Each structure stands twice: as C-alpha cells, then as structure tokens.
Amino acid sequence: MGVGWGYLADRYGFRSNFIIALAFWISSTMLLMNVTSPMWLFIAFFGLGAGNSGYQMSAQNIVFEFGHRDDMAMRLAFSNTAESIMSAAGPLIGGVIAASLGYNAVFWVAIVCEFIALILLVTLVEEPRKKRLQLEAEKAAAAAETSTTSLASREDEDGNL
Fold first, then answer.
1. Above 70 in pLDDT, residue 15?
2. Which of 3, 4, 54 is nearest to 25 (CA)?
3. Is residue 156 assigned to a domain?
C-alpha cells in the first residue's frame, strides 16, 4: 500500500494523500458501525489500515514541505507533540464516551471529527509543494526581468553593450 501512497504523494503532493486517507477512515468507520459478516469486517479493517498507511506516509513529510529549513526541527517537534497528546487523550476520551453513551457514540464522534478534519484540510490547507513551486517561478521571473532590464540599460542606441 505504501508504494501507492508514495506514487500519489510524488505526483499530487502529500495533501492529496491526507484527503484520501481521511476518506478511507470515514467510509471504513461508517462500514464498521454496520458490519454484519466477517467479510465486511475484513473490508472495514482493510480501509482503516489503508487510511492509517496514507496518514503515516504523509504526516511528517507534509510538515517538511511547509516553511524553511531553518525552522524544520521546531515544526516537526510541534507536530509530534500534538500527535502524541491526541494519541494519549483519544483513548481516554473514547473510553469515557463509550462508558457513558455507548459504542455507537464513539463511532459517531470519530466520524464527526474526521469530517471536520477533512473540511479543514480541503478549505484551509494549500498544497505546500504547489505554493513553493509557484513562489520559485515568480522569483525566477522577477530575476529574469531584472537581469534583462539591467542588460537593456547598458546597451547604447545601436544595441551594443
């Protein structure tokens, strides 16, 4: 599965991997809520694993693509800290919800959180690679314009330097 995620990330960026991984998680969680046979259980867990695989492929790599190299360690530390806090708090919160409201509520809370994450990702997060390439192209165009302008200012009336 990782080879497929790697190809998608190389071709379209890590944001697209996140979007597809969230779609796997949402659909698999919904399927898991309504599973009635071992085959559907297998398919639901395959989808959850595929979503997790896409997340693992993209989590640190997308952090690397935001910003400059100078603050990469801080971005990675912040991302890992946030992920660790959620990994520790999630099961505790899920246990409280399951004990007080039942397992169905845990699934619904997970689906709602996944939908919120998907909406935020689609609406607020740009593909960092495309943005970086666009900025590099604009810098190159500005540099080319500056060099042709300075070259043109050194020419005389006959076009000689």
1. yes
2. 54
3. no
